[in-house]
Amino acid sequence: MNLTDIPIGIGTWYLGEDRRKRNSEIAAIRRGLDLGLRVVDTAEMYGSGASEELVGEAIAGRRDDVFLVSKVLPSNASASGVRRALEASLYRLNTDRLDLYLYHWRGHHRLEETVEALQAAVDDGLIGAWGVSNFDPADMDDLADLGATPATNQILYNLLRRGPEYDLLPLMRERGVDLMAYSPLEQGRLFQGQAGKLLSEIAAEAGTTPAALALAWAVRKPGSIAIPRTSSPERMEENASALQVTLTPEILRDLDEVFTPPSGPRPLEIL
Predict the structure, then answer these.
(1) Rounded CA Rg of the chain
(2) What does the mean pLDDT of the chain come to?
(3) The pTM is what?
(4) CATH code assigned to 10-191+217-233
């Protein structure tokens, strides 16, 4: 199973933080798996481990159906810290391995030290591959200087955040680095205002929903996956429906008119 085989995944940012929503959140993850979604993305930062515990419960008995992703905090990205954080994540997730482990964002530890620790985890069979998150072109060049190529770069990317198209995404494609798009619906803000109204009109003409259209757009190129987060089984069904959306040249043109592509470099945005 590869990261982008099924280009819509299951995000879990903020999940596990409110016990009143726990049953619905677990049901949503399981519904996603029932619909054929495979990538489940979490992090030690999310709820200080609560999200990982929730995911561990949700995927119990179905581990082989899941491409499991978690992340290490920059404060834990030393040689020994990576291993301690990884083992703690594995414990919370109730598994003996991750399919992918990401450096959540760049911190003060030497990049070479972090990369060596991540590669050691691969060599020891604890993770299938390593990647990064929130790395801009300069960060990617620093990795290249080390002779290191991450499996993926998880970044903020959606119709409102198209800056990476100018420089970062072409660089990633050139180097064989997959795109993981987090907050592909801009946490719901994508549907607000005049732009949201126009998005709804384009979606209606395409015979789909605004969310499904926006998700299909985010993964329109090979080597891409989007990881929307929801605590609703019904919303999970809508997310999965993006896999059935066909983007015609006319739809893409209409979206470009509303959500303008970048004409120059922009700093990488982070939520």
Answers:
(1) 18
(2) 97
(3) 0.97
(4) 3.20.20.100
